[in-house]
Design brief:
The protein has 373 residues and is of the alpha/beta class. The protein contains 14 helices and eleven strands. It folds into two domains: 192 residues, Rossmann fold (3-Layer(aba) Sandwich); 135 residues, Cytochrome-c3 Hydrogenase, Chain A, domain 2 (Irregular). The chain is 37% helix and 13% strand. The strands form four sheets. It has a five-stranded parallel beta sheet with strand order 2-1-3-7-9, sandwiched between helices. The chain has a two-stranded antiparallel ribbon with strand order 4-8. The chain is globular. The N terminus is likely disordered.
């Protein structure tokens, strides 16, 4: 006996993706497949370009916990909208001409796809040091792909510090002339909006949260800072929310990595690094760098790694603010509110922090003077 019932949109998508993964089939070759899929849900085509990268950003995002990557690629991220990953060289089943055809067909619809760029873009010698696919027997450089795909994309996400600032491939002496996506666009006069998600690698939540925000409210719903980073994830210094901040305010610094005090003197870059690592944590909320007694190395800053090297050398401190959980200070008629009391306490913390910063700066200056002597 065969039972018949109407397939729901979710069932249809799961059946389609499951068949493709299990049988290695190219479902787009079946009659009316694309028509049925388009009718089932509003597709958002995505081209994921990997340039000068170690693939760590892909690995991080693929390890997304909630939602899991299969939910992002199979289910609707938001009701009625589905991310359709058309090209990703590492995880797609196709290779060679088949893979390049998928990229070209998606890119043919100008303004109809989102481009994700992972990795820095080599530019020296016309970008010959990174090639992806070929045409008429000639390799196509990542520089050509980034330029051609970027100018026709609906929007671009620069994923990872290498894509955002050049990262490790662009570190001195930078033999391949690697640069960021933003630099390539600026040089080519490309005006396509770019959202920067730095990190080496970036946290999967930063990527998934940004994509969901764009799908729900459009690009304008993602508030970014002067460097194009979503303030929801990069709006605060790591130092501001570090659980060891109290030790910094007291001027109590660890001398070895095993001590539970502030790691500033051991090179922690928390005072100059913008990210929410202390409150989001990594590895399914298990831990983070400082929690594992390792100083922050500043990998979320676009100037990583050159500007924060050597990793074990203290950095100059600026912009130290109270932790984000403190309420704003407000003055009411006849006195201060409860929030004001906390705010005044925060000011005391800032003063203490400034004093600690002065102590740290003094020690740093003395250390440098001793080296010069």
């Amino acid at each position: 006996m065969v039972l018949q019932r109407e397939l729901s949109r979710r069932d249809f998508l799961k059946l389609s993706a499951g068949s493709a993964a299990g049988l290695g089939l190219l479902l787009s070759g079946f009659p009316r497949f694309e028509e049925l899929l388009a009718a089932a849900v509003d597709e958002v085509p995505v081209i994921w370009l990997q340039a000068g990268t170690c693939t760590g950003c892909s690995v991080a995002v693929l390890n997304s916990l909630s939602p899991r990557i299969q939910n992002i690629l199979v289910d609707e991220v938001v009701p009625g909208k589905h991310v359709s990953l058309r090209y990703h060289a590492t995880i797609m089943a196709g290779a060679g001409d088949v893979a390049m055809k998928a990229l070209e067909e998606t890119a043919a619809k100008k303004g109809g796809y989102v481009l994700i760029v992972e990795g820095a873009i080599p530019t020296k010698d016309n970008g010959v040091y990174c090639q992806i696919g070929e045409k008429d027997g000639n390799g196509i450089t990542a520089l050509q792909h980034a330029t051609n795909l970027g100018q026709n994309a609906l929007a671009v996400i620069a994923l990872g510090t290498c894509a955002v600032g050049g990262g490790i491939p662009a570190a001195a002496p930078n033999p391949t002339g690697s640069v960021s996506v933003g630099t390539v666009f600026a040089d080519a006069g490309i005006k396509t909006p770019v959202i920067n998600l730095p990190g080496c690698p970036p946290h999967p939540d930063w990527f998934v949260g940004t994509v969901a925000s764009v799908l729900i409210g459009g690009l304008s719903s993602v508030q970014v800072d002067e460097q194009g980073r979503p303030v929801a994830f990069y709006g605060k210094l790591i130092h501001d929310n570090c659980p060891r901040r109290g030790y910094f305010d007291l001027g109590k610094f660890a001398k070895t990595l095993s001590e539970p005090y502030c790691l500033y003197e051991l090179g922690c870059k928390g005072p100059v690094t913008h990210a929410d690592c202390p409150i989001r944590l990594w590895n399914s909320g298990t831990n983070w760098c400082v929690g594992a007694n390792a100083p922050c190395i500043g990998c979320c800053e676009p100037t990583f790694p050159d500007a924060v090297s050597p990793f074990r050398q203290p950095v100059a401190i600026y912009g130290v603010t109270p932790p984000s959980w403190l309420p704003p200070m407000e003055e009411e008629k006849g006195g201060f509110s409860a929030g004001a009391a906390a705010g005044l306490g925060a000011i005391g913390g800032v003063v203490a922090g400034a004093a600690a910063g002065a102590v740290a700066a003094s020690r740093l200056a003395k250390r440098q003077a001793d080296k010069e002597d």
